[in-house]
Structure to design on (529 residues):
Protein backbone atom coordinates (compact mmCIF):
# COMPACT_ATOMS: atom_id res chain seq x y z
CA UNK A 1 0.00 0.00 0.00
CA UNK A 2 1.60 3.30 -1.13
CA UNK A 3 0.97 6.82 0.18
CA UNK A 4 -1.62 7.63 -2.47
CA UNK A 5 -3.58 4.47 -1.70
CA UNK A 6 -3.34 5.21 2.00
CA UNK A 7 -4.67 8.74 1.46
CA UNK A 8 -7.66 7.31 -0.40
CA UNK A 9 -8.26 4.88 2.45
CA UNK A 10 -8.17 7.76 4.91
CA UNK A 11 -10.81 9.64 2.94
CA UNK A 12 -12.99 6.54 2.83
CA UNK A 13 -12.64 6.10 6.58
CA UNK A 14 -13.63 9.73 7.06
CA UNK A 15 -16.77 9.16 5.04
CA UNK A 16 -17.83 6.52 7.55
CA UNK A 17 -17.80 8.93 10.48
CA UNK A 18 -20.71 9.57 12.83
CA UNK A 19 -21.90 13.20 13.26
CA UNK A 20 -22.64 15.50 16.29
CA UNK A 21 -23.31 19.23 17.18
CA UNK A 22 -20.53 21.60 18.34
CA UNK A 23 -21.54 23.44 21.49
CA UNK A 24 -19.10 25.84 23.10
CA UNK A 25 -16.55 25.45 20.27
CA UNK A 26 -14.53 28.50 19.24
CA UNK A 27 -13.89 28.37 15.50
CA UNK A 28 -14.68 30.15 12.27
CA UNK A 29 -17.78 29.13 10.34
CA UNK A 30 -16.94 26.32 7.91
CA UNK A 31 -13.52 25.69 9.40
CA UNK A 32 -12.70 21.98 9.42
CA UNK A 33 -9.36 22.21 11.23
CA UNK A 34 -9.09 23.36 14.82
CA UNK A 35 -11.31 23.50 17.84
CA UNK A 36 -11.47 21.88 21.26
CA UNK A 37 -13.23 18.62 21.92
CA UNK A 38 -14.50 18.37 25.47
CA UNK A 39 -15.32 14.88 26.63
CA UNK A 40 -15.34 12.79 29.81
CA UNK A 41 -13.00 10.26 31.36
CA UNK A 42 -14.79 8.12 33.92
CA UNK A 43 -13.46 7.01 36.28
CA UNK A 44 -10.16 8.85 36.34
CA UNK A 45 -7.39 6.47 35.23
CA UNK A 46 -4.57 5.61 37.64
CA UNK A 47 -1.96 6.06 34.85
CA UNK A 48 -1.96 7.00 31.16
CA UNK A 49 0.69 4.53 29.93
CA UNK A 50 -1.32 1.81 28.19
CA UNK A 51 1.61 -0.62 28.16
CA UNK A 52 1.45 -0.70 31.95
CA UNK A 53 -2.30 -0.50 32.61
CA UNK A 54 -5.19 -1.89 30.57
CA UNK A 55 -8.19 -0.50 32.44
CA UNK A 56 -10.79 1.03 30.13
CA UNK A 57 -10.22 4.72 31.04
CA UNK A 58 -6.48 4.34 30.43
CA UNK A 59 -7.07 2.72 27.05
CA UNK A 60 -9.70 5.24 25.91
CA UNK A 61 -7.47 8.20 26.66
CA UNK A 62 -4.22 6.43 25.82
CA UNK A 63 -5.38 5.62 22.30
CA UNK A 64 -4.80 9.28 21.41
CA UNK A 65 -1.27 9.21 22.84
CA UNK A 66 0.00 5.76 21.82
CA UNK A 67 -0.34 3.92 18.53
CA UNK A 68 0.39 0.43 17.29
CA UNK A 69 1.20 -1.14 13.95
CA UNK A 70 -2.39 -1.70 12.83
CA UNK A 71 -6.01 -0.61 13.14
CA UNK A 72 -9.10 -2.65 12.23
CA UNK A 73 -12.25 -2.03 10.22
CA UNK A 74 -15.72 -3.01 11.42
CA UNK A 75 -15.19 -6.53 10.02
CA UNK A 76 -11.89 -6.77 11.97
CA UNK A 77 -9.73 -6.68 8.85
CA UNK A 78 -6.36 -4.94 9.42
CA UNK A 79 -5.76 -1.35 8.33
CA UNK A 80 -2.52 0.66 8.37
CA UNK A 81 -1.46 2.08 11.71
CA UNK A 82 2.21 2.84 12.24
CA UNK A 83 2.81 0.17 9.58
CA UNK A 84 2.01 1.22 6.03
CA UNK A 85 2.23 -2.38 4.72
CA UNK A 86 2.85 -5.95 5.87
CA UNK A 87 3.59 -9.37 4.41
CA UNK A 88 3.04 -12.90 5.72
CA UNK A 89 5.19 -15.80 4.60
CA UNK A 90 3.49 -18.84 2.97
CA UNK A 91 4.23 -20.97 6.04
CA UNK A 92 2.51 -18.36 8.28
CA UNK A 93 5.58 -18.07 10.45
CA UNK A 94 7.19 -14.79 9.34
CA UNK A 95 5.47 -11.39 9.47
CA UNK A 96 7.23 -8.38 7.97
CA UNK A 97 5.98 -4.86 8.70
CA UNK A 98 7.08 -1.68 6.93
CA UNK A 99 6.69 1.46 9.03
CA UNK A 100 5.70 4.86 7.70
CA UNK A 101 8.69 7.20 7.48
CA UNK A 102 9.10 10.29 9.66
CA UNK A 103 7.24 9.01 12.72
CA UNK A 104 8.37 10.79 15.88
CA UNK A 105 7.62 10.45 19.55
CA UNK A 106 6.29 13.47 21.40
CA UNK A 107 9.79 14.34 22.60
CA UNK A 108 10.94 14.64 18.96
CA UNK A 109 12.88 11.38 18.85
CA UNK A 110 12.27 9.26 15.72
CA UNK A 111 10.24 6.08 16.20
CA UNK A 112 12.03 3.16 14.58
CA UNK A 113 11.75 -0.60 14.29
CA UNK A 114 13.94 -0.88 17.41
CA UNK A 115 11.16 0.74 19.44
CA UNK A 116 8.67 -1.78 18.06
CA UNK A 117 10.87 -4.76 18.91
CA UNK A 118 11.54 -3.41 22.42
CA UNK A 119 7.86 -2.70 23.07
CA UNK A 120 6.66 -6.10 21.90
CA UNK A 121 9.42 -8.29 23.29
CA UNK A 122 10.21 -6.49 26.54
CA UNK A 123 7.79 -4.07 28.16
CA UNK A 124 4.58 -5.63 26.81
CA UNK A 125 5.49 -9.27 27.29
CA UNK A 126 6.46 -8.49 30.90
CA UNK A 127 3.56 -6.22 31.87
CA UNK A 128 0.55 -6.84 29.63
CA UNK A 129 -1.57 -9.93 30.33
CA UNK A 130 -2.99 -10.22 26.84
CA UNK A 131 0.20 -9.31 25.01
CA UNK A 132 2.23 -11.86 26.95
CA UNK A 133 -0.03 -14.68 25.85
CA UNK A 134 0.39 -13.63 22.21
CA UNK A 135 3.94 -12.38 21.91
CA UNK A 136 5.53 -15.23 23.87
CA UNK A 137 4.87 -17.18 20.67
CA UNK A 138 7.51 -15.13 18.85
CA UNK A 139 10.75 -17.00 18.31
CA UNK A 140 12.70 -14.06 16.94
CA UNK A 141 12.07 -10.32 16.51
CA UNK A 142 14.37 -8.37 14.20
CA UNK A 143 14.87 -4.77 13.07
CA UNK A 144 16.95 -5.10 9.86
CA UNK A 145 16.55 -1.39 9.14
CA UNK A 146 14.86 1.55 10.89
CA UNK A 147 11.56 1.06 9.04
CA UNK A 148 11.33 -2.75 8.92
CA UNK A 149 10.20 -5.14 11.65
CA UNK A 150 10.29 -8.91 11.20
CA UNK A 151 8.61 -11.31 13.62
CA UNK A 152 9.26 -15.05 13.26
CA UNK A 153 6.89 -17.28 15.21
CA UNK A 154 7.71 -20.61 16.85
CA UNK A 155 4.69 -22.10 15.11
CA UNK A 156 1.65 -20.67 13.31
CA UNK A 157 -0.65 -18.50 15.40
CA UNK A 158 -3.87 -17.83 13.51
CA UNK A 159 -4.86 -14.41 14.93
CA UNK A 160 -1.38 -12.85 15.00
CA UNK A 161 -2.35 -10.00 12.66
CA UNK A 162 -5.23 -9.16 15.00
CA UNK A 163 -2.86 -8.47 17.91
CA UNK A 164 -1.55 -5.04 16.92
CA UNK A 165 -4.24 -2.59 17.95
CA UNK A 166 -3.34 0.34 20.21
CA UNK A 167 -4.76 -1.37 23.30
CA UNK A 168 -2.83 -4.62 22.83
CA UNK A 169 0.50 -3.45 21.44
CA UNK A 170 1.14 0.25 22.08
CA UNK A 171 4.61 1.28 20.95
CA UNK A 172 6.65 3.07 23.61
CA UNK A 173 10.05 4.81 23.31
CA UNK A 174 12.93 2.44 23.90
CA UNK A 175 15.33 5.28 24.71
CA UNK A 176 13.17 6.19 27.72
CA UNK A 177 12.25 2.77 29.10
CA UNK A 178 15.06 0.37 28.25
CA UNK A 179 16.98 -0.72 31.33
CA UNK A 180 14.62 0.97 33.80
CA UNK A 181 12.01 -0.15 36.28
CA UNK A 182 9.09 0.33 33.90
CA UNK A 183 6.46 1.01 36.55
CA UNK A 184 8.63 3.51 38.42
CA UNK A 185 9.98 5.36 35.39
CA UNK A 186 9.50 9.15 35.85
CA UNK A 187 8.42 9.39 32.20
CA UNK A 188 5.17 7.61 33.10
CA UNK A 189 3.87 10.97 34.32
CA UNK A 190 4.56 12.47 30.88
CA UNK A 191 3.07 9.61 28.82
CA UNK A 192 5.31 10.01 25.78
CA UNK A 193 3.87 8.26 22.74
CA UNK A 194 3.70 8.89 19.00
CA UNK A 195 -0.04 9.50 18.58
CA UNK A 196 -1.68 12.61 17.14
CA UNK A 197 -2.13 14.13 20.59
CA UNK A 198 0.35 14.65 23.40
CA UNK A 199 -0.13 15.31 27.08
CA UNK A 200 -0.05 18.99 28.08
CA UNK A 201 -1.24 18.62 31.66
CA UNK A 202 -3.06 16.29 34.00
CA UNK A 203 -4.75 17.96 36.94
CA UNK A 204 -5.84 15.11 39.17
CA UNK A 205 -9.51 15.18 39.97
CA UNK A 206 -10.17 17.80 37.29
CA UNK A 207 -9.04 17.03 33.72
CA UNK A 208 -6.49 15.61 31.31
CA UNK A 209 -5.51 18.10 28.60
CA UNK A 210 -4.16 16.78 25.28
CA UNK A 211 -2.88 19.03 22.50
CA UNK A 212 -1.92 18.50 18.86
CA UNK A 213 1.35 16.68 18.19
CA UNK A 214 2.73 19.04 15.55
CA UNK A 215 5.24 16.45 14.39
CA UNK A 216 2.59 13.85 13.60
CA UNK A 217 3.48 11.78 10.53
CA UNK A 218 0.08 11.79 8.82
CA UNK A 219 -0.28 14.98 6.75
CA UNK A 220 -3.02 17.27 8.00
CA UNK A 221 -3.74 15.31 11.16
CA UNK A 222 -4.96 15.82 13.76
CA UNK A 223 -7.76 18.18 12.81
CA UNK A 224 -8.54 19.18 16.39
CA UNK A 225 -6.31 21.56 18.32
CA UNK A 226 -6.89 19.82 21.61
CA UNK A 227 -8.96 17.33 23.57
CA UNK A 228 -9.93 17.90 27.18
CA UNK A 229 -10.99 14.82 29.12
CA UNK A 230 -12.98 16.06 32.10
CA UNK A 231 -13.17 14.08 35.34
CA UNK A 232 -16.82 14.19 36.45
CA UNK A 233 -17.45 11.57 39.17
CA UNK A 234 -21.18 12.25 39.58
CA UNK A 235 -23.34 10.48 37.00
CA UNK A 236 -26.08 13.13 37.02
CA UNK A 237 -23.50 15.85 36.39
CA UNK A 238 -22.12 13.89 33.44
CA UNK A 239 -25.55 13.73 31.84
CA UNK A 240 -26.13 17.44 32.43
CA UNK A 241 -22.73 18.25 30.89
CA UNK A 242 -23.75 16.36 27.76
CA UNK A 243 -27.19 17.94 27.59
CA UNK A 244 -25.84 21.48 28.02
CA UNK A 245 -22.96 21.07 25.57
CA UNK A 246 -20.21 21.39 28.18
CA UNK A 247 -18.97 18.11 26.70
CA UNK A 248 -19.56 16.99 23.14
CA UNK A 249 -18.88 13.28 23.49
CA UNK A 250 -19.50 10.47 25.95
CA UNK A 251 -18.42 6.83 25.73
CA UNK A 252 -18.46 3.55 27.64
CA UNK A 253 -20.07 4.19 31.07
CA UNK A 254 -19.87 7.99 30.98
CA UNK A 255 -23.66 8.02 30.71
CA UNK A 256 -25.39 5.64 33.07
CA UNK A 257 -27.51 3.22 31.06
CA UNK A 258 -30.75 4.26 32.74
CA UNK A 259 -30.23 7.70 31.13
CA UNK A 260 -29.97 6.31 27.58
CA UNK A 261 -33.69 6.27 26.70
CA UNK A 262 -34.09 9.95 27.68
CA UNK A 263 -30.87 11.25 26.12
CA UNK A 264 -31.51 9.35 22.89
CA UNK A 265 -34.51 11.63 22.24
CA UNK A 266 -32.55 14.89 22.40
CA UNK A 267 -32.44 16.54 18.95
CA UNK A 268 -28.86 17.80 19.23
CA UNK A 269 -27.32 14.38 19.91
CA UNK A 270 -26.55 11.22 17.99
CA UNK A 271 -26.22 7.85 19.74
CA UNK A 272 -24.49 4.77 18.36
CA UNK A 273 -23.32 1.46 19.78
CA UNK A 274 -20.84 1.00 16.92
CA UNK A 275 -17.14 0.97 17.63
CA UNK A 276 -17.11 -1.87 20.14
CA UNK A 277 -16.91 -4.73 17.62
CA UNK A 278 -13.26 -5.45 18.36
CA UNK A 279 -13.80 -5.46 22.11
CA UNK A 280 -17.17 -7.27 22.32
CA UNK A 281 -17.37 -6.40 26.07
CA UNK A 282 -18.14 -9.44 28.22
CA UNK A 283 -19.29 -8.79 31.80
CA UNK A 284 -19.01 -11.49 34.43
CA UNK A 285 -18.95 -12.17 38.14
CA UNK A 286 -15.33 -12.99 38.93
CA UNK A 287 -15.02 -15.80 41.50
CA UNK A 288 -11.72 -16.53 43.24
CA UNK A 289 -11.39 -20.29 42.64
CA UNK A 290 -8.65 -20.54 45.28
CA UNK A 291 -10.98 -19.94 48.22
CA UNK A 292 -13.53 -22.33 49.73
CA UNK A 293 -16.40 -22.79 49.06
CA UNK A 294 -15.77 -21.12 45.69
CA UNK A 295 -13.22 -23.77 44.76
CA UNK A 296 -16.10 -26.25 44.34
CA UNK A 297 -17.76 -26.10 40.91
CA UNK A 298 -21.13 -26.91 42.51
CA UNK A 299 -20.99 -23.60 44.34
CA UNK A 300 -20.17 -21.74 41.15
CA UNK A 301 -22.97 -23.53 39.31
CA UNK A 302 -25.35 -22.56 42.12
CA UNK A 303 -24.34 -18.92 41.63
CA UNK A 304 -25.24 -19.18 37.94
CA UNK A 305 -28.66 -20.66 38.69
CA UNK A 306 -29.35 -18.03 41.38
CA UNK A 307 -28.98 -15.00 39.08
CA UNK A 308 -31.85 -13.94 36.84
CA UNK A 309 -29.61 -12.60 34.08
CA UNK A 310 -32.51 -11.60 31.82
CA UNK A 311 -33.83 -9.40 34.62
CA UNK A 312 -30.33 -7.99 35.12
CA UNK A 313 -30.14 -7.11 31.43
CA UNK A 314 -33.54 -5.44 31.35
CA UNK A 315 -33.62 -3.71 34.74
CA UNK A 316 -30.02 -2.57 35.13
CA UNK A 317 -28.69 -2.45 31.55
CA UNK A 318 -31.97 -1.40 29.89
CA UNK A 319 -31.68 -4.06 27.21
CA UNK A 320 -28.32 -2.83 25.88
CA UNK A 321 -26.83 -6.24 25.24
CA UNK A 322 -27.76 -9.90 25.64
CA UNK A 323 -27.35 -12.70 28.17
CA UNK A 324 -23.93 -14.38 27.95
CA UNK A 325 -23.88 -18.14 27.60
CA UNK A 326 -20.21 -18.84 28.26
CA UNK A 327 -16.65 -17.56 27.85
CA UNK A 328 -16.93 -16.64 24.15
CA UNK A 329 -19.17 -13.79 23.04
CA UNK A 330 -21.74 -14.46 20.35
CA UNK A 331 -20.15 -11.50 18.50
CA UNK A 332 -16.79 -13.25 18.35
CA UNK A 333 -15.54 -15.90 15.95
CA UNK A 334 -15.90 -19.53 17.05
CA UNK A 335 -18.82 -18.98 19.42
CA UNK A 336 -20.60 -22.21 20.46
CA UNK A 337 -24.27 -21.91 21.40
CA UNK A 338 -24.86 -25.57 22.31
CA UNK A 339 -23.55 -25.50 25.87
CA UNK A 340 -25.02 -26.27 29.28
CA UNK A 341 -27.84 -23.83 30.07
CA UNK A 342 -28.22 -22.06 33.39
CA UNK A 343 -31.79 -20.83 33.40
CA UNK A 344 -32.85 -18.88 36.46
CA UNK A 345 -33.64 -21.50 39.13
CA UNK A 346 -33.14 -20.69 42.83
CA UNK A 347 -34.31 -24.22 43.66
CA UNK A 348 -31.48 -25.79 41.63
CA UNK A 349 -29.06 -23.41 43.32
CA UNK A 350 -30.27 -24.41 46.79
CA UNK A 351 -30.07 -28.10 45.93
CA UNK A 352 -26.42 -27.77 44.88
CA UNK A 353 -25.56 -25.85 48.05
CA UNK A 354 -27.33 -28.48 50.16
CA UNK A 355 -25.38 -31.19 48.36
CA UNK A 356 -22.17 -29.41 49.35
CA UNK A 357 -23.25 -29.36 52.99
CA UNK A 358 -23.75 -25.61 53.03
CA UNK A 359 -26.95 -25.62 55.08
CA UNK A 360 -28.71 -22.34 55.96
CA UNK A 361 -28.39 -21.09 59.52
CA UNK A 362 -31.22 -19.63 61.63
CA UNK A 363 -30.87 -16.35 59.72
CA UNK A 364 -31.07 -18.18 56.37
CA UNK A 365 -27.44 -17.51 55.56
CA UNK A 366 -25.25 -20.38 54.35
CA UNK A 367 -22.02 -18.44 53.77
CA UNK A 368 -20.85 -14.81 53.85
CA UNK A 369 -18.58 -13.61 51.05
CA UNK A 370 -16.89 -10.20 50.66
CA UNK A 371 -17.78 -8.55 47.34
CA UNK A 372 -15.53 -5.82 45.93
CA UNK A 373 -17.79 -3.40 44.03
CA UNK A 374 -16.39 -2.48 40.62
CA UNK A 375 -15.73 1.30 40.73
CA UNK A 376 -16.94 2.15 37.24
CA UNK A 377 -20.12 4.05 37.92
CA UNK A 378 -23.65 3.70 39.19
CA UNK A 379 -24.56 0.88 36.82
CA UNK A 380 -21.90 -1.29 38.43
CA UNK A 381 -23.14 -0.30 41.89
CA UNK A 382 -26.66 -1.28 40.88
CA UNK A 383 -25.35 -4.54 39.45
CA UNK A 384 -23.66 -5.30 42.78
CA UNK A 385 -26.93 -4.64 44.62
CA UNK A 386 -28.82 -6.86 42.17
CA UNK A 387 -26.33 -9.69 42.68
CA UNK A 388 -26.46 -9.28 46.46
CA UNK A 389 -30.24 -9.59 46.45
CA UNK A 390 -30.17 -12.51 44.01
CA UNK A 391 -27.66 -14.57 45.97
CA UNK A 392 -29.29 -13.72 49.30
CA UNK A 393 -32.38 -15.64 48.16
CA UNK A 394 -30.36 -18.85 48.16
CA UNK A 395 -28.43 -18.11 51.37
CA UNK A 396 -25.23 -16.57 49.93
CA UNK A 397 -24.61 -13.33 51.81
CA UNK A 398 -22.56 -10.81 49.80
CA UNK A 399 -20.90 -8.08 51.84
CA UNK A 400 -20.44 -5.15 49.43
CA UNK A 401 -17.19 -3.23 49.76
CA UNK A 402 -16.56 0.10 48.01
CA UNK A 403 -13.13 0.90 46.59
CA UNK A 404 -11.47 3.32 44.16
CA UNK A 405 -10.13 2.40 40.72
CA UNK A 406 -6.49 2.07 41.73
CA UNK A 407 -7.30 0.01 44.82
CA UNK A 408 -9.63 -2.25 42.85
CA UNK A 409 -6.96 -2.91 40.23
CA UNK A 410 -4.32 -3.64 42.87
CA UNK A 411 -6.45 -6.02 44.93
CA UNK A 412 -7.94 -7.74 41.89
CA UNK A 413 -4.61 -8.32 40.16
CA UNK A 414 -2.99 -9.57 43.36
CA UNK A 415 -5.84 -12.06 44.06
CA UNK A 416 -6.84 -10.18 47.22
CA UNK A 417 -10.57 -10.60 46.62
CA UNK A 418 -13.36 -13.14 46.87
CA UNK A 419 -15.85 -11.83 44.31
CA UNK A 420 -16.12 -8.79 42.06
CA UNK A 421 -17.54 -7.93 38.66
CA UNK A 422 -15.37 -7.17 35.67
CA UNK A 423 -15.82 -6.41 32.00
CA UNK A 424 -13.27 -8.07 29.73
CA UNK A 425 -12.77 -7.66 26.00
CA UNK A 426 -12.76 -10.44 23.39
CA UNK A 427 -10.51 -8.74 20.78
CA UNK A 428 -11.96 -10.54 17.78
CA UNK A 429 -10.56 -13.99 18.48
CA UNK A 430 -10.64 -16.35 21.49
CA UNK A 431 -6.87 -16.78 21.27
CA UNK A 432 -6.46 -13.08 22.01
CA UNK A 433 -9.24 -12.07 24.36
CA UNK A 434 -10.63 -15.24 25.91
CA UNK A 435 -7.91 -17.77 26.65
CA UNK A 436 -5.80 -15.30 28.65
CA UNK A 437 -8.46 -15.30 31.40
CA UNK A 438 -8.48 -19.09 31.85
CA UNK A 439 -5.21 -20.80 30.79
CA UNK A 440 -3.01 -21.79 33.71
CA UNK A 441 0.10 -20.35 32.05
CA UNK A 442 -1.43 -16.89 32.49
CA UNK A 443 -1.99 -17.12 36.24
CA UNK A 444 0.23 -14.09 36.96
CA UNK A 445 -0.01 -12.31 40.27
CA UNK A 446 0.00 -8.55 39.92
CA UNK A 447 -1.10 -8.53 36.25
CA UNK A 448 -4.60 -7.22 35.71
CA UNK A 449 -6.91 -9.10 33.32
CA UNK A 450 -4.81 -12.23 33.38
CA UNK A 451 -6.18 -15.48 34.87
CA UNK A 452 -7.11 -13.73 38.11
CA UNK A 453 -9.75 -16.30 39.09
CA UNK A 454 -7.04 -18.98 39.39
CA UNK A 455 -8.84 -21.53 37.20
CA UNK A 456 -6.71 -24.44 36.03
CA UNK A 457 -7.62 -27.37 33.80
CA UNK A 458 -4.92 -29.11 31.69
CA UNK A 459 -7.49 -30.16 29.08
CA UNK A 460 -8.69 -26.59 28.70
CA UNK A 461 -5.07 -25.45 28.36
CA UNK A 462 -4.48 -28.03 25.63
CA UNK A 463 -7.61 -27.16 23.67
CA UNK A 464 -6.94 -23.43 23.78
CA UNK A 465 -3.37 -23.97 22.58
CA UNK A 466 -4.35 -26.30 19.75
CA UNK A 467 -7.09 -23.95 18.62
CA UNK A 468 -4.74 -20.98 18.61
CA UNK A 469 -2.19 -22.73 16.39
CA UNK A 470 -4.55 -24.57 14.04
CA UNK A 471 -4.63 -23.14 10.52
CA UNK A 472 -8.10 -24.37 9.54
CA UNK A 473 -11.15 -22.46 10.77
CA UNK A 474 -13.15 -25.68 10.86
CA UNK A 475 -10.57 -27.27 13.15
CA UNK A 476 -10.47 -24.18 15.32
CA UNK A 477 -14.26 -24.17 15.64
CA UNK A 478 -14.27 -27.82 16.72
CA UNK A 479 -11.62 -27.19 19.37
CA UNK A 480 -13.21 -24.02 20.68
CA UNK A 481 -16.60 -25.72 20.85
CA UNK A 482 -15.07 -28.43 23.02
CA UNK A 483 -13.42 -25.96 25.36
CA UNK A 484 -16.60 -23.90 25.76
CA UNK A 485 -18.62 -26.97 26.73
CA UNK A 486 -16.06 -27.96 29.37
CA UNK A 487 -15.82 -24.49 30.83
CA UNK A 488 -19.55 -23.85 31.00
CA UNK A 489 -19.83 -27.06 33.01
CA UNK A 490 -17.06 -25.97 35.41
CA UNK A 491 -18.03 -22.25 35.63
CA UNK A 492 -14.68 -20.66 36.54
CA UNK A 493 -16.55 -17.33 36.53
CA UNK A 494 -20.26 -16.53 36.33
CA UNK A 495 -20.79 -15.06 32.87
CA UNK A 496 -23.49 -12.42 32.94
CA UNK A 497 -23.94 -10.24 29.85
CA UNK A 498 -22.61 -9.19 26.47
CA UNK A 499 -22.80 -5.39 26.79
CA UNK A 500 -23.54 -2.82 24.09
CA UNK A 501 -22.30 0.56 25.29
CA UNK A 502 -23.68 3.85 23.96
CA UNK A 503 -21.63 6.67 22.44
CA UNK A 504 -23.40 10.04 22.51
CA UNK A 505 -22.01 12.85 20.36
CA UNK A 506 -22.93 16.24 18.94
CA UNK A 507 -24.54 15.97 15.54
CA UNK A 508 -21.87 18.00 13.73
CA UNK A 509 -18.96 16.12 15.27
CA UNK A 510 -17.40 14.03 12.49
CA UNK A 511 -15.38 10.83 12.25
CA UNK A 512 -15.62 9.77 15.88
CA UNK A 513 -16.31 6.10 15.18
CA UNK A 514 -14.48 4.95 12.06
CA UNK A 515 -13.12 1.58 13.10
CA UNK A 516 -13.85 -1.48 15.24
CA UNK A 517 -11.90 0.04 18.14
CA UNK A 518 -14.17 3.08 18.16
CA UNK A 519 -13.42 5.69 20.82
CA UNK A 520 -10.10 3.99 21.63
CA UNK A 521 -8.81 5.04 18.20
CA UNK A 522 -6.46 7.98 17.60
CA UNK A 523 -9.09 10.68 16.83
CA UNK A 524 -6.67 12.04 14.23
CA UNK A 525 -9.50 12.69 11.75
CA UNK A 526 -12.14 13.83 14.25
CA UNK A 527 -13.34 17.34 13.47
CA UNK A 528 -16.21 19.77 13.88
CA UNK A 529 -18.00 20.09 10.55
Amino acid sequence: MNRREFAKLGLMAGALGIGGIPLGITRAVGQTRGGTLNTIIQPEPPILVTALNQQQPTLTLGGKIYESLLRYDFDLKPLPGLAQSWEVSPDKLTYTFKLFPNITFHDGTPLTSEDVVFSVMKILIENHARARNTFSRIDKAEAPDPLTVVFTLKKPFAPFLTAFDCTTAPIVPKHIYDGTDYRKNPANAKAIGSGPFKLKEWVRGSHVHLVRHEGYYRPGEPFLDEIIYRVIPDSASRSVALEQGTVQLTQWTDVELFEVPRLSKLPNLTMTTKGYEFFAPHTWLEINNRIAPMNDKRFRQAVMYAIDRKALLNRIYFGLGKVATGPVSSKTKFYEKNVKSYDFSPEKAKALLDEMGLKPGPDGKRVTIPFMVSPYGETHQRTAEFLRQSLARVGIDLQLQGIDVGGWAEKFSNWDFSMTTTTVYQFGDPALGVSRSYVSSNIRKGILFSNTCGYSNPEVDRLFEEAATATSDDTRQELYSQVQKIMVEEVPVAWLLEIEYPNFMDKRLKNVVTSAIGVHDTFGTVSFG
Observations:
- The longest helix spans residues 473-490.
- Residues 306 and 487 are 18 Å apart (CA to CA).
- Confidence is low (pLDDT under 50) at residues 1-31.
- The longest strand covers residues 138-145.
